[in-house]
Design goal:
Distance between the termini of chain B: 41 Å
Shape of chain A: globular
Largest sheet of chain B: 6 strands, mixed
Oligomer: heterodimer
Order of helices and strands of chain B: EEEEEEEEEEEE
Shape of chain B: globular
Low-confidence stretches of chain B: none
Number of helices of chain B: 0
């Protein structure tokens, strides 16, 4: 069964460092997303991406965040200068254009900022 | 604004029994969709079941069924014949109308289910 894959599964970084989280969405999907879940809290929408551009972003997604699809398969989330409060599980998700519009999530990348 | 409420922070159920996890929602949209996801301790988000606001029948997927009561704005998840592997966090979520290309899912705070042997 097709799945969304994310790397790394866990990354530890120092505050102020740049981090890139990678995702390979399901191959025929057209819509891509990043969500975040701080430990013990709700899952929160960060950004949606379609046709090589951001279609919507939340207030969390400030200038230190960026997304791109550099090679037509990978979908990346970059955090330019990490802060302690960026520690969270980051989920990539993708969807096709089927009637249910089911959103498929990856297994998540746990980011720990020290 | 859309909102999802899960009022049960934690639930216990005996193995092989059925359990209902509550979810209520608030939206002014006529078209929307409701999801349930399972999050085991390993952290991944596993899709369980989906209900569209115009679907006339309640959704079922194996041991999972969604008790959709539109007038009451509730979308409770029913797990029949609970198994030890069902112990996890369960999230209810809502998607906006199809015209909203952002597909910004709104999640509830989750219910932690523990299945007792």
């Amino acid at each position: 069964e097709p799945e969304v894959t994310q790397t790394p599964s866990h990354q530890v970084t120092q505050m102020g460092q740049e981090v890139i989280l990678r995702c390979v969405p399901i191959s025929n999907h057209l819509y891509f997303y990043w969500y975040r879940q701080i430990l013990g809290q709700k899952v929160e929408f960060l950004v949606s991406f379609y046709n090589n551009e951001i279609s919507e972003k939340s207030e969390i997604f400030d200038d230190q965040f960026s997304v791109e699809r550099p090679d037509g398969s990978n979908f990346t989330l970059k955090i330019r200068s990490t802060k302690l409060e960026d520690s969270a599980m980051y989920f990539c998700a993708s969807r096709g254009t089927g009637s249910t519009g089911e959103l498929f999530f990856g297994e998540g990348s746990r980011l720990t900022v020290l | 604004a859309q909102k999802i409420t899960q009022t049960q922070p934690g639930m216990f159920v005996q193995e092989k029994e059925a359990v209902t996890l509550d979810c209520t929602y608030d939206t002014s949209d006529q078209s929307y969709g409701l999801f349930w996801y399972k999050q085991p301790s390993s952290g991944e988000m596993i899709f369980l079941i989906y209900q569209g606001s115009y679907d006339e029948q309640n959704a079922t997927e194996g041991r999972y069924s969604l008790n959709f009561q539109k007038a009451r704005k509730s979308a409770n998840l029913v797990i029949s014949a609970s198994q030890l592997g069902d112990s996890a966090m369960y999230f209810c979520a809502m998607r906006p109308p199809w015209a909203d290309s952002s597909y910004k899912l709104i999640f509830g705070s989750g219910t932690r289910l523990l299945v007792r042997p």
